[in-house]
Amino acid sequence: MPHSIANQANPARYLQDKLFTEDFQSSLKSKISQAKPYNYGVIDGLFKEDVLRQARDEIFENIQFTEKETDIYKLNQTGDLLNIDGLPEEEAKLLSTLHKVRDALYSKEMRDMISKVTGCGPLSASKTDLSLNNYDKGCHLLTHDDVIGDRVISFILYVLPPDYKWDPKWGGALRVYPTLREGVPDTDYCGAVPPQFNQLSFFKIVPGHSFHDVEEVYVDQPRLSIQGWYHLPQEGEEGYVETPRVDFHTEVSTMAQQSLAHYECDGYYPARDFVEASAGLSLDALKQFISSDILENVDDLRKQFTEEGILRLNDFLEPEFFAAVRSEIEELELQKCPIKKTDVPEEWGVAAPPHLRKYLYLRSNGQSTSLQMLKELFSSRAFIRLIERLTACLPEQQFVELRRFRPGIDYTLASVSGFKEDILEAVLSVTTAKFEDGVGGYDLVMGGGSDENDDPAVYRESKDEDGGVLLSALPKPNEFIIILRDPDLLRFIKYLSKNAPGSRWDVHGEYTVKPDSVNVEVDESTMRVD
Amino acid sequence: MGIKRAAFGKASKEKRTKPQTEEEVKPEIEIEIDGDVDDEELSEVYGLFAKLQSERDPKIARGLIHECDRLLRERDEKDLTLPSKFHVVYAGSLLSLADPAIIDNQADEFRAAGLERIAIGLESLEEDTESAIVSGIAAQEIIQFLHTQIEEGKVKTESKSWLSKAVDLIKSKTVNSEIAKAAFKFVQLLEDLNPVDETDDVIDVLKTHKESDDDATKSWANCALGTFYLNKAAQSDSSAESVDDINKDILNQAITHLREGLNDENTQSFVMLAEGLLQLAGVIEEEEDSTEDVGEVYSEALRHLKKAQLLGHEDLREIIESLEE
């Protein structure tokens, strides 16, 4: 049965009186209408302060948070706050002020005010939808547009430590992104709202436009918030419309949005063009680049790959070549890290759009740096022949990138390969920094969830063995991983915390496989480079 | 074939070490096993201790204490003797918790137990290479413990006697990287505990080994000498309170040692050189007729801090960001 606050006596009395004055509302409405890149608003001092202080105490004394980490977020969360209605009386008493806060947020006065200042139309009283999120050090939420179902307004009420001001340097800001066109956010955010105690930030959800993220919290401070949505009126409520609006991404998760993505569209970089391998290297020349331990044990490694579907090889590059690559990378690490798109040198591109991925990729420029050579190596016919020998599959076309994932900025979200058939996917980590757990940057492969009954907002909840993690690899210098990837497997590089010791660097090669060529008999006599 | 769930799942799940799914899974601590030790249990303890030395994480210390206690009882029942290194490692774990900031009500107990265990470890030292290494570790743990005591304002007669014991260990054995590292910690201690009678003895030891053939020993010896001269440069005028009072010649002498001490295995060496360069930049900025490029000095300091960070040094981001602004 839907929660209803209709019969409760004036739940809005815990809100500040100023909210309901004509002057306040017209001033706020004006600010929201002028906000860029889309209409968002900020109200400082939403609640009468003692009420929110009391609620905060109740939360920390009585509520358990669960740490959650997926490709798109890391945070500590409670279940839906609607659940507090179902608690036994004694337990409900312990959260009585929190109950008041929730009811005030969904009170008629509050909904009318939000509706008026945003121009969003009527909002549901019965469909409440909010939870508590505590972002502590390292927590973040990457770029998304919040479009799910009949959500109309997204809001965040900050319940930060009330006795000191939150320093914007601690992170945790709500950041808003402009769009290049519908559904394609730009790489860099253009506005940021640092949180403060008793502040409400909110915006109207506009499919394909309302892109935002939550900046990582960089320090040991609790960025606690009550976060939720106002929905369209439900059946039986005033303002209900029988046929719901058709949204750009109605009832699909961010994961599903990705599979709908058109890679060839403007704003999607790098262009994922699969091409034939390049000539230029003889098989013999591989010895200059690949460790002799690998080249001399190809038959054993192939056997291993055939059995396990994966190879993880340490010390993959020949030591002298790896030292040259490492030295070039270290020199780049010691320079100032480019943060905004405009800071990035022209030999690098920025992978986009950010609701799918963000990292730097090396453009081919004909120069003979070690990094360019490494990228060319992965695209060469000789290397593809090596892959053929290692995997007993016949690679056809390839797409190779040399990537840099910067701390505090970069990631890829989970995606499927986009092919109907298995492909070979190779990643060589050439990271120089010493990574440990807790700062992200790991490469993760997991089974795809296809249960139609799943809550679309929780699209990477692993509920059974079959949907679990298959590979999790922290960046390790000179480790090569190759897998034969099923079409429905998900893979991502986890967002690198600003507290990571340096960037993650890798070469990423995808190789289509000739149909029905998996597990072919490898005839060494055919292992030649044309 | 393929990276399919049925075929691949088992092997890969064993490699999972962190909570990366919705389920909260506590990570196991990954340690590097000490490959020079045949005894597997001891090797794990030593590997974990190396992690404690770099991270000073109370959780690791508690785990180590638990494991050391178990090993001690188990071997005692079997009438087996444990090596001196084991006792020193156990002592170091206990002393790392002898800090009221970590465990308010039991700090004294850990302190007493740790010092007792150090004494047991030192009793069985011999005149061999391994004992020289253990001496260095013991000296480091004693000095680390004295740092905590100083922070608490608890410098007692007992503390001074332990300081003498640490200096004896630094002086008496064949110098190795652990001894040189202990000397570096001793020099750091001087910033808060000056004057110390034994300082000259330690500096003499360091001077003898500043050109050691062993890279790690050379690094720590020069790092210690550089740090000593950095302090001395600032203290050459007893009233030194500003960069005007820093003795530039001694500062350059410090920087020369710190450059000699650079070593990828010693992240502290990059941090100390950066500190020396930042002091130098401050001095140059105050000089009216200086022709030196202060921007280059800052830039070099920044590179060394970034290098330390890349090599896994504890968080330096705040200072790096402030220098980049």
TrEMBL record, chain A:
Molecular function as annotated in GO: iron ion binding; L-ascorbic acid binding; peptidyl-proline dioxygenase activity
Catalytic reactions of this protein: [ribosomal protein uS12]-L-proline + 2-oxoglutarate + O2 = [ribosomal protein uS12]-(3S)-3-hydroxy-L-proline + succinate + CO2; [ribosomal protein uS12]-(3S)-3-hydroxy-L-proline + 2-oxoglutarate + O2 = [ribosomal protein uS12]-(3S)-3,4-dihydroxy-L-proline + succinate + CO2
Entry-linked PROSITE patterns: FE2OG_OXY
Primary subcellular site in the record, as a coarse category: nucleus
GO CC, any one term: nucleus
GO biological process: positive regulation of catabolic process; positive regulation of macromolecule metabolic process; regulation of translational termination
Compartments reported by the entry: Nucleus
Fe2OG dioxygenase domain boundaries: 126-232
Cofactor(s) the protein requires to work: L-ascorbate
Keyword tags: Dioxygenase, Iron, Metal-binding, Nucleus, Oxidoreductase, Vitamin C
SMART domains referenced in this protein's UniProt entry, alphabetically: P4Hc
Superkingdom classification of source: Eukaryota
InterPro entries noted in UniProt: Oxoglu/Fe-dep_dioxygenase_dom, Oxoglutarate/Fe-dep_Oase_C, Pro_4_hyd_alph, TPA1/Ofd1_C, TPA1/OFD1_N, uS12_prolyl_hydroxylase
Similarity comment text for this entry: Belongs to the TPA1 family.
UniProt name for this protein: uS12 prolyl 3,4-dihydroxylase
Automatic annotation (TrEMBL), chain B:
GO terms of biological process kind: positive regulation of SREBP signaling pathway; regulation of translation
GO-annotated cellular components: nucleus
Domain of life, source organism: Eukaryota
Pfam families in UniProt: Nro1
The UniProt record lists the keyword Phosphoprotein: no
Keyword Aminoacyl-tRNA synthetase carried by entry: no
InterPro entries xref list: ARM-type_fold (IPR016024), Nro1/ETT1 (IPR024318)
Biased composition (Basic and acidic residues): 11-28
Disordered: annotated segments: 1-28
Compartment(s) where it occurs, according to its Swiss-Prot or TrEMBL record: Nucleus
Keyword terms, alphabetized: Nucleus, Transcription, Transcription regulation, Translation regulation
Main localization, broad class: nucleus
Family note: Belongs to the ETT1 family.
Full protein name: Enhancer of translation termination 1
Higher taxonomy: Eukaryota, Fungi, Dikarya, Ascomycota, Saccharomycotina
